[in-house]
Design brief:
The complex is a heterodimer.
Chain A: E1 4-7, E2 10-13, E3 19-25, E4 31-38, E5 42-51, E6 54-57, E7 65-66, E8 76-78, E9 87-94, E10 103-104, E11 108-112
Chain B: E1 4-5, E2 10-14, E3 19-25, E4 32-38, E5 45-51, E6 56-59, E7 62-67, E8 72-77, E9 86-93, E10 97-99, E11 103-108
Parallel strand pairs in B: 2-11
Antiparallel strand pairs in B: 1-3, 3-8, 4-5, 4-9, 6-7, 7-8, 9-10, 9-11
The chains are: A mainly beta, B mainly beta.
Chain lengths: 113, 109
């Protein structure tokens, strides 16, 4: 089954404690991205990757890091989480940069206290 | 400044009737528009799209209309079914996708 998986689905952590949210897709997609969803703001792109070892900032990259060492995986790293990073996070993938139809993971709800 | 706006946070429609979800945008350079549907505890899923060179695209019960002069996009669902209850996001693209805040559609039996 074609899918995007994210782990964990729920996470409560404290300010400053480094965390990683994993994302994996099994569709051999080139393009992957991370979004955060906040009430009243829709989805905002954090980082994206056009292929292995190619990553770039989205609209709200501050406080986040990503890596793309393999085509299927695109982890999101919060080196020092803060309460304003409390949000719902989605990983997405698509065939390539020009393909607008994206496949989303189920989301990770992060709470930073 | 939000370039893509969905002004109705929620909409309630009787089963069998037409649901109309609206979306306004400000950037005339957007060349592609999409609608996604999201159920609770799931990620958004692609529903329907339209290129800026068209004014209508239809897929079964779903039709998207684009009015470029008004910078307005709408999604029509006919007839509405209980399974259509979800949050609907519109998104627009020039070189990246810009998303609206979403409209929660509730279909009443």
């Amino acid at each position: 089954e074609a899918q995007v998986t994210q782990n964990p689905r729920y996470l409560i952590t404290v300010t400053g404690k480094k965390l990683t949210v994993t994302c994996s897709q099994n569709m051999n997609h080139e393009y992957m991205s991370w979004y955060r969803q906040d009430p009243g703001l829709g989805l905002r792109q954090i980082y994206y990757s056009m292929n292995v070892e190619v990553t770039d900032k989205g609209d709200v990259p501050e406080g986040y890091k990503v890596s793309r060492k393999e085509k299927r995986n695109f982890p999101l790293i919060l080196e020092s989480p803060s309460p304003n990073q409390t949000s719902l996070y989605f990983c997405a993938s698509s065939l390539n940069r020009l393909s607008y139809e994206q496949y989303f993971g189920p989301g990770t709800r992060l709470t930073v206290t | 400044d939000q370039q893509v706006k969905q002004n109705s946070p929620s909409l309630s429609v009787q089963e069998g009737r037409i649901s109309i979800l609206n979306c306004d945008y400000t950037n005339s350079m957007f060349d592609y528009f999409l609608w996604y549907k999201k159920y609770p505890a799931e990620g958004p899923t692609f529903l329907i799209s339209i290129s800026s060179i068209k004014d209508k695209n239809e897929d079964g019960r779903f039709t998207v209309f684009l009015n470029k002069s008004a910078k307005h996009l709408s999604l029509h669902i006919v007839p509405s079914q209980p399974g259509d209850s979800a949050v609907y996001f519109c998104a627009a693209s020039d070189y990246q996708l810009i998303w609206g805040a979403g409209t929660k559609l509730i279909i009443k039996p």
